[in-house]
Amino acid sequence: MRFLFGLLIASFAAAASVEPSHGHGDTFHEAVSQDDQCICRTDLTVNLPERSLQAQQCTCQEIQRILEEGVQLKLRVAELEAKVAELEEELTERPNENEYATLESDGARWRAFWWYKPNAWPTDVLQVEYGSCSRDDRLCFGRLPRKLQEDEAEILATDSSGNAYRWAFNSINPTAHAAWLAFHDHVESKVTNGQTWDPRVISGTPPKAAQDSFVYRKQNGVVSLLLDDDNCDCLSTISMGHGLCNTAFSTDYAQANVYGVDQLYDSHCQPPLPGNQLTLYFKESDIESPGE
Questions:
Q1: Where are the alpha helices (DSSP H) in 22-148?
Q2: Tens of pLDDT along 163-187?
Q3: Longest dimension (CA), the chain
Q4: Distance between CA 119 and CA 179 in Å, rounded?
Q5: Which whole-number Å values give the CA distances from 55 to 29, 45, 64, 128, 166, in the listed order?
Q6: Measuring CA to CA, which residue among 230, 131, 232, 226 is closest to residue 182?
Q7: Does the predicted model carry a pTM greater than 0.85?
Q8: Is the Cβ–Cβ distance between 120 and 137 less than 8 Å?
């Protein structure tokens, strides 16, 4: 497929690259009136693919048409090149996607992109691009697929205590947007006491506080993530990596150099711990109800 696209682009590029230029016999001449009905010089020749126009009397409208055809060809080449780049990205982005666990819940089909079962920790809780993990890996610190659009994307989180929370991203909500920058674009971000971004509770216990703060930054060697009410461990929903509190961490809530995940429902000040389990899914599609 890439070879065929390459041939197509090459043919369009060859056509688009033929332009009139100054010279002798096969070129435009500067002596062309600005009047749309002007008469060109008698030695004008314009070369196009597989044909040549020799004109003793040609109008400027025809010259304009020829030039516009060249511009349109160039635009088409650019569109095809962009499409090829997009298809190549799709081919290389998700080699293992169809292997990832799926879940049907709350009227939608979800596919896993991040999971953790007790194991060693890498240096970043969003370390790899989507599609980099194998289904049988004990942990996958993956990011959202690049194809997702912010205002259409949703995630579902499930933990080892039976909680399941669902969030919809929103580009005009600073808290939700900061989370998008982290999960999708791999950009460190922080919002403190911003706009509430509460989940929809599918099962388990609802959060105890409004989720209006988000941070994704490095702490004790691991880039960690926290969604809670004030950027400081307590009353969180998503907490992964090292304990976080403001610009550092607090020993009142977490031990130094202990890495893991928290349960989605945090009744007080539970830090991320290595014994917990967490899986994150993105919404792949809605499920039609019977009769729809």
A1: 60-93
A2: 999 999 999 999 999 999 999 999 9
A3: 91
A4: 25
A5: 12, 6, 15, 62, 69
A6: 226
A7: no
A8: no
